[in-house]
Automatic annotation (TrEMBL):
Designated name of the protein: Catechol 1,2-dioxygenase
Pfam families, A to Z: Dioxygenase_C, Dioxygenase_N
Similarity comment: family membership: Belongs to the intradiol ring-cleavage dioxygenase family.
GO molecular function annotations of the record: catechol 1,2-dioxygenase activity
Domain of life according to the entry: Bacteria
E.C. designation(s): 1.13.11.1
Enzymatic class: oxidoreductase
Organism name: Prauserella oleivorans
Keyword vocabulary terms for this entry: Dioxygenase, Iron, Metal-binding, Oxidoreductase
Keyword Oxidoreductase: yes
Cofactor: Fe(3+)
InterPro entries listed in its UniProt record: 1_2-CTD_multi_dom, Catechol_dOase_N, Cchol_dOase_actb, Intradiol_dOase_C, Intradiol_dOase_core, Intradiol_RC_Dioxygenase
């Protein structure tokens, strides 16, 4: 990556992720959380912190270092990055306890609503010189009884072959490698795109600094993000990974599941093809 004014930084990604989060939250008009619930959950979180301080004999120096780091995460807009990498997978685990059909995974900080709607056989927007292996991703959306879900939407987004997301890395055009594909009457779809690269948490921001200081690694395996939805069905937010992919067994976000791994096969013309069927649960 050449260093230009356009090169992506943690600050760009962090700030954009915070803005995107605020915009989506405003649209969804969340309800109030009750005082009882706040007291119960926050009480437990604080008790966990108190335990860690006692058991690890945390010093005043360490406490002040933590405060300085927390301030930096806020100023860099990195709360969505940090929380989605280190916390969201457990929220998803709890949400999935009563969910049938395709396994879910974390949403992550890089979802953008209202992308271009595309027909059931479609190519995601790419640049003329888009790098990366051409991928054809096809399948069918069905309900838990095996019936096709006509017109299901596959809201799909993923990183480019360098691991960057459009809308967050300023050198990428808006809408790149994003789209809402509408399945046909049989719930079928065929999406042409490129294979994403593994994603690295921006190393120049506070989340990256924490990971480096702790001696952890900042990588997520290459993945496609999807929200699959249809009226009358519970939406599934998930991710699909690639067999044999680097970091598949040590995802920093702990968001992989064995059921969510694709095995793309060569088509003989430089492209690879992978099939995956989604199963949605009825809500009524
Ligand atoms: C983060 C980035 C991702 O692409 C993802 O899928 C999950 C989390 C992050 O930087 O927090
Ligand atoms: Fe991602």
């Amino acid at each position: 990556m050449t260093t230009t004014e356009q090169s992506p930084t943690a600050h760009d990604s962090g700030t954009s992720a915070t803005q995107a989060f605020r915009a989506i939250r405003q649209q969804s008009r969340p309800g109030e959380v009750s005082p009882e619930r706040i007291s119960a959950v926050v009480g437990r979180v604080l008790a966990g912190i108190h335990d860690a301080i006692r058991e690890e004999k945390v010093t005043y120096d360490e406490f002040q270092a933590a405060k300085a780091w927390l301030i930096e995460v806020g100023e860099g807009g990195e709360w969505p990055l940090f929380l989605d990498v280190f916390v969201e997978h457990v929220v998803e685990e709890v949400a999935a306890e009563n969910q049938q059909g395709t396994k879910g995974s974390i949403l992550g900080p890089y979802y953008l609503p209202d992308q271009q709607r595309l027909p059931s056989v479609a190519a995601l927007p790419t640049r003329p010189d888009e790098q990366g292996t051409r991928l054809v991703f096809a399948g069918q959306v069905r309900d838990t009884d095996g019936n096709p879900v006509a017109g299901a939407e596959l809201d799909i987004w993923h990183a480019d072959a360098e691991g960057y997301y459009s809308g967050f890395a300023p050198h990428l055009p808006d809408g790149l490698l994003r789209g809402v594909v509408v399945a046909d009457e049989q719930g079928r779809f065929e999406i042409s795109t490129v294979q994403p690269a593994p994603y690295q948490i921006p190393t120049d921001g506070p989340t990256g600094k924490l990971i480096e200081s702790a001696g952890w690694h900042p990588w997520r395996p290459a993945h496609l993000h999807l929200i699959v939805r249809a009226p009358g069905y519970r939406s599934i937010t998930t991710q699909l990974y690639f067999e044999g992919g680097e970091w598949l067994d040590s995802d920093v976000a702990q968001a992989t599941k064995p059921e969510l791994v694709l095995s793309p096969q060569p088509l003989g013309d430089g492209r690879v093809r992978s099939e995956y069927d989604f199963v949605l649960e009825r809500t009524r």
